[in-house]
Amino acid sequence: MSRESVVGGGRRGSGVALAGLTAVVSGVSVFVNGYGVRAVPDAAVYTTAKNALAAVVLLLVVAAVPALRSGPLVPGSATGPGGRPGASSRAPRRIGRALGLAYVAAVGGGVAFVLFFTGLAHSASEPAAFVHDTLVLWVGAVAWRALGERLAPVNLLAIGALLAGQVVLSGGVGRISGTGGLGLVLAATLLWSVEVVVAKRLLAGVAPGTVALVRMGGGSLLLVAYLALDGRLGALAAMDAHEVAWVAATGVLLAAYVATWFAALARARAVDVTSILVGSVLVTAALQAAAGHPGVPVEPLGIGLVALGAAAVLVRWPRRAAA
Q: Which residues are CB-neighbours of 311 under 8 A, at least 6 positions away?
């Protein structure tokens, strides 16, 4: 085994571990957001407030840790065709980098959030969660073409198990209908799938902390502009202490999610970290069960399938590390 393979395997290992941490943060965040979105009835105001707070938290963290803004956190961590380390590690050209950062900020951190939470307000939470978690399917398709991340049989097994598990947890195919709300959620998910690939390329030459800060900072500015144009900007300043408390809790969780997500993406394949992220539903389900939420059924089959899909990615990683 070559030293390059060992180092590359170590980077992928840390990326998979960070993706697992991101899934835990995401699962907790989904649970907490269930309360927060009820505390602040206007979804756009709520999203803008917590995203802006997340941007401030990230700014403080990046300012306090120079390594997060000094360049790629893990040089050469990008993968090229076939997943070979270094094959596409050259940083994007300056104009390409600027366009990529603009997409991450305006679309990933702004437009997609507006579409997602507007759609969520007009659809049931379970099918909306399923549509969002099809992200792994779209990332798998886009990353195969744009990043050369080949899907092995175990990857296809993982994606199939993850999606099948989400169908069960969503209440079956019959509950996943093509309402206008779910259409907006799907549009946001597709935009985010493109963002994953764009960010993966950017992370070959830009530090994860910088990409995270650009995403949340630029996106928050766009969301504030959206509220101003819609005449709802005053609602931000009118929030009471109870609403601010929920915004603070969810904003900090969002900052942690974005920071660990981009750090994982800088180290491991896009399809792998996205697959593991779907496992966040296990954390949310556990918290809902512990809280004794009425009307939240426990679906062992769905939970088992999601766990199988996430485990398949973990099995895939040691084989790649040893290659």
A: none
DSSP code, position 105? I
In the beta sheet, which residues pair with residue 79?
85
Determine the Cα–Cα distance for residues 164 and 151; give it in Å rounded to an integer: 18
**Distance (Å, whole) CA 165 – CA 131:** 12
| pTM of the entire predicted model | 0.81
- Write the pLDDT tens digit of every residue in 84-107: 444 444 555 788 899 999 999 999
Q: How far apart are CA 111 and CA 105, in angstroms?
A: 9
Please give the helix or strand (H or E) that residue 41 lies within, else none. none
Tokens of 15: 């990326």
Distance between CA atoms of 170 and 160, rounded to whole angstroms? Answer: 15
Strand spans (E) along the chain: none
CB-based contact 124:109 (threshold 8 Å): no
Residues 6+ apart with CB under 8 A from 166: 129, 130, 133, 134, 278, 281, 302, 306
Crossing angle of helices 112-120 and 180-202, rounded to 10°: 150
**Per-residue DSSP letter, 77:** -
Burial 63-97 (b: 16+ CB within 10 A, else e): eeeeebeeebbbeebbbbeebebeebbebbeeeeb
How far apart (Å, rounded) are the C-alpha atoms in residues 315 and 238? 50
How do residues 263-282 score in pLDDT, each as one tens digit? 999 988 898 888 888 788 77
DSSP designation for 111 = I
Q: How many CA atoms lie within 13 A of 67 on its CB side?
A: 4
